[in-house]
What we know:
- The complex is a heterodimer of chains A (328) and B (148).
- Chain A has 328 residues and is an alpha+beta fold.
- Chain A is globular and about 60 Å long.
- In chain A, strand 4 (60-62) and strand 5 form a beta hairpin.
- Chain A has 13 helices and eleven strands.
- In chain A, 53% of the residues are buried.
- Chain A has helices at residues 12-19, 35-40, 76-80, 83-88, 90-97, 102-105, 110-115, 121-124, 166-172, 190-193, 274-279, 287-297, 310-326, and strands at residues 5-8, 26-29, 48-51, 60-62, 68-71, 176-181, 184-189, 212-218, 226-232, 243-252, 255-264.
- Chain B is mostly helical and 148 residues long.
- The longest helix of chain B is centred in the middle third of the chain and has 14 residues, at 89-102.
- The chains are: A alpha+beta (328), B mainly alpha (148).
- Chain A binds chain B through residues 1-6, 29, 31-33, 36-37, 40, 49, 51, 53, 77, 81, 97, 100-104, 106-107, 236-238, and chain B through 4-6, 8, 27-29, 32, 35, 41-44, 47-49, 51-52, 95, 98-99, 102, 104, 109, 112-117.
Amino acid sequence: xxxxxxxxxxxxxxxxxxxxSEKESSRFIGGGTNLLDLMKYRVENPEHLIxxxxxxxxxxENSDSGGLILGATxxxxxxxxxxxVEKRYPLLSEAMLxxxxxxxxxxxxxxxxxxxxxxxxxxxxxxxxxxxxxxGSGCSALEGFNRLHAILGESEHCIATHPSDMAVAxxxxxxxxxxxxxxxxxxxxxxxxxxxxxxxxxxETNLEPGEVITGIELPEKxxxxxxxxxxxxxxxxxxxxxVSVAAAIELENTTIKDVRVALGGVAHKPWRKPSVEKEFFxxxxxxxxxxxxxNKLTEGAKGYGDNDFKIPLVRKSIVRALTEAMNx
Amino acid sequence: MKISAWTxxxxxxxxxxxxxxxxKGCDHGQCGACTVxxxxxxxxxxxxxxxxxxxxxxxTVEGLGSGDELHxxxxxxxxxxxxxxxxxxxxxxxxTIGLLNMNKGSDPAELRDLMSGNICRCGAYANIYKVVxxxxxxxxxxxSKNSN
Lengths: 328, 148
């Protein structure tokens, strides 16, 4: 790890002020579970850390629109086990508890979870080319060991996936991210928060330099009845998803009134297509329709050799997640 | 204690305070050997800066038990033969206490999942599982105390 300076910010305004003119060489630190790890590998090399754990952003509160606001510095464990989250947004709770280990969930924060970076081996291995780590150097995963890599929305410059489980559930739930910066406050839909790689895979989110996440807002509708987070991975705990599916359905008898499907482990961001979902409103909640939805949602999926298996796997996982959600 | 900004908590404990009960394993949050309790919650001390923990209650394996008397979780590890080389044991014990503090682990799968952040190279998992399962069924109030 490089020598760094460490400062605490005392308020949101103070944090924005502190990062001020040194945006490139500074990072906000919340739990630090991913940032410090990346610093040890010298993938991230900031000179200044600004601790944002004292900004009074660690609450879970009702929002004006009948939903919930999850404070940015609330830990993942305290969020997932929060009574209101468990009761009203069990899909989110389930997804968050499938992630990492108990120790990491006790430290990792909600804002940091969205900003965690890919676990692509080549991104972590500084001896190999990686366009995300060093723009223009090339992508080692394209013809490398790419079993964990993307099958949707990827580009010739990057086939890394976003590792978060939380973000996948948040995408299905239509959550929004509250951010503050020197230009003021704004909200970004979770589905717009992360970017596809294109030719700038090092720019991963629509967060402007110097902006800080203050909270995540969940809308009133939580799909607390019919939901399922299916995480397919190499061992039953403490592993990133090969593919994951956040599925939520609102049923009217056996008819689909509303359906949400977001995918993890397949793209540079949580993968969701509301237009495809809408085609199935009013249709029967049955295997045939779920298969059709799965095919449409993954249209254009492309494998790179080692990860070819993900294409049939994700389609079957979608059907299974929706079936389990329906039978919950 | 005066330390540089980039000192992680595990290094501060071991190198500056000479509290070598907390083990440094992978140093990347993957093995759990460095697990300690901060305000009663178990965390990986390799992935946090010591400077970030100002004002917090930090309990390491040295802070459990008193004098010659072991903490009940330590006793249970001995009773069930839940360690071999012992390198992961301080972390396993801190995680067990953290789990009891959380009052989670109601079914076997959840319990195993909650302990999966601690790797044991000897493979003492079956007996560690017995410890945790036995303790969670007891009145945990006395057990979950971090220190005496």
